[in-house]
Amino acid sequence: MRNFFIGSVNVNLGDMILLMSDGVADNFDAEFNGFLPIDDGMSEASWKDVPDVERIKSKLCCLKMTELLRNISSCKSVAQTVLSFCKELTINSREFLENSEKEKLPDDYKKYPGKMDHATCLCVRIMQK
Q1: Which residue ranges in the chain fall short of pLDDT 50?
Q2: Number of domains observed in the structure of the chain
Q3: Half-sphere exposure (CA, 13 Å, Cβ side) for 33?
Q4: Which of 7, 21, 25, 80 has the maximal Cβ count within 10 Å?
């Protein structure tokens, strides 16, 4: 449960709340996208060497979500877009596993980005009763 989160935020009418399983959330992690710290101008070559790594990864996740969902206004489209992103991201990994019966997926997120897991995504809009 390393990425389990409970929190509270103030919401307004019209706001959307996006809930997702780790099978979706992990695909927004910069590391699983094949993105290295050095790609963002950091001096560290590995994520394990980055100070305050969770804050930085969270910021990168928010930037990716904002870019992906910028012009989407319906909850259905938000959920579909997020799940489509995960499906597209993991295509190399899925093809490798389909074509390599006995081989283990290499630990190379540049070549095989994404993390395959059960994927659940729910988007709801705050509305007046």
Answers
A1: none
A2: 1
A3: 18
A4: 25
pTM for the model = 0.88
Q: Which residues contact 9 (CB under 8 A, 6 or more apart)?
A: none
CB neighbour class for 106 (10 Å; exposed up to 12, middle 13-18, buried from 19): exposed
Pair of tokens at residue 107: 């630990």
User: Shortest CA distance to 75 belongs to which of 121, 21, 6?
Assistant: 121
Range of the domain at 50: 16-125
Residue 100 lies in a domain: yes
